[in-house]
Amino acid sequence: MRRVVIVLLLLAFSPLQSAELDKDLADFKREVLEVNKRLLLLEEELLFPADTQVGVYVSLDVGHFFEPDSITLELDGEVIASHLYTEKEVRALRNGAVQRLAVANVKNGGHELVAFVTGDGPQGTEIRRGVNGQFEKGHGRHFVQLHIEDDAAKQQPRFRFREWR
Question: What local confidence, expressed as pLDDT, does residue 135 receive?
């Protein structure tokens, strides 16, 4: 009789232990995700300190005369990024999105950016252009934008670097 009572008690408490175990497991997963998030932020701060960081972004204004296919970016003669565009990304750029193309560490002072851009122009013509720009890196983060805009008078795209302040 005593064994039957013990078995019944174990069966009664089993769902309670299972529910508690599920809750503990969910709490543990949440804590692991939070630690992972903090580690990623710390890693980014260590790899790209704010005082040496330069970010390069791409934007497309209207896009009637150009659809980007790829961009290769050089900073001071060294390739720091290369990107092939999907239809979804081009659509997002046309709708006003700004893409982070690269983040790099640089010393304060003068620097040169060169972008090699390929894509489709008016009537499906292939366009390959290089655009270069200079910027002066000071203290703190620095942001540069590769702005692709339509030149309605020439019915061609225009590429230029702009500094964000």
Answer: 93
